[in-house]
Amino acid sequence: MKRLGVNIDHVATIRNARGEAHPDPVLVANFIKKKGIDSITIHLREDRRHIKDIDAKKICKIKDLKVNLEISTKDEIVKKAVKIKPSFVCIVPENRKEITTEGGLDLEKNKKISKQLSINLKN
Question: What percentage of the chain reaches a pLDDT higher than 90?
Fold first, then answer.
């Protein structure tokens, strides 16, 4: 069976650029779930350029929707991910001045964080 996941970060980017409440990524997540999407990807960046904490919390609470939460390795963000409890976590490198992710992730250096997330998300 084919599955489709959609990244909705830029719905939030548009909202944030406008300084308004719309478009609302939570409403978009609910809408596309009803259309048969299997999962949603969101990126909780340190600078909150895309998804904000409240968006991530609400989206992760949508029943029967798998959420892939992209995060950096910063302690604050890792702790938030553990608290929010998405279906999946994808650790991505993050540089404040980049427009989008531009580099790779040192897996050996981040082994401890990966293990911590794996253990905490299962509970």
Answer: 55
